[in-house]
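$ ./design --mode recover --in tokens.txt
reading tokens...
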């Protein structure tokens, strides 16, 4: 029943990026295919080999990497996506999306896809609470982007506050609802 759904998972440069590996496994367990797109920053936090092996698909990072296909990778992935999930989603990625920038592979896919977009912010509590970030999140919500809210708890900076990436179960619940999965 769920077979054939294709989820593009964007991973950005947050310390929470290691959780994206488990998210790949959970999405695949629902019968979906997963293609991972990483920002350059994300590659500092989680191995490309890990994401490639768990997703069973090549990981796309570089806009200009020859793929052997005639269709640009950002358009091919954007068209194939039934849903685009960005988890974790950095303050930087949120800002670029809110501005409509197309300065890397992931932001190009955000603009090129007509699939539903789900973002899962993760960042320091002061970053999340900054008016610039809050305004950007409101802008994205107004455009129909679904935001899986960050939660409170211990942050990597050593403080307690709101900014931890939502539990993976919350993202899965949202994704299943969006894709009408069992
Ligand atoms: C150790 C470390 C952890 C970071 N964690 C986060 C984070 O959780 N959220 C965030 O928005 N930025 C975080 N950053 C900053 C981003 O990596 C930086 O803004 C980067 O340019 C984001 O690039 P991207 O949005 O293209 O992935 C962190 C940086 C470092 C060095």
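writing sequence...
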């Amino acid at each position: 029943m769920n077979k054939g759904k294709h989820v593009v998972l964007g991973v950005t440069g947050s310390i929470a990026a290691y959780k994206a590996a488990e998210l790949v496994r959970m999405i695949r367990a629902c019968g979906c295919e997963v293609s991972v797109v990483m920002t350059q920053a994300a590659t500092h936090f989680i191995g490309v080999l890990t994401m490639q092996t768990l997703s069973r698909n090549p990981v796309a990072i570089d806009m200009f990497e020859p793929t052997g296909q005639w269709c640009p990778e950002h358009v091919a992935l954007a068209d194939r996506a039934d849903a685009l999930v960005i988890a974790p989603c950095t303050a930087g990625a949120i800002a670029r999306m809110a501005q409509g920038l197309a300065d890397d592979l992931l932001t190009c896919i955000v603009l090129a896809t007509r699939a539903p977009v789900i973002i899962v912010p993760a960042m320091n509590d002061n970053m999340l609470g900054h008016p610039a970030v809050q305004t950007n999140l409101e802008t994205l919500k107004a455009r129909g982007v679904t935001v899986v809210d960050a939660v409170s708890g211990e942050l990597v900076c050593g403080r307690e506050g709101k900014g931890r990436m939502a539990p993976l179960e919350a993202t899965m619940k949202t994704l299943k609802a969006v894709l009408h999965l069992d």
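exit 0
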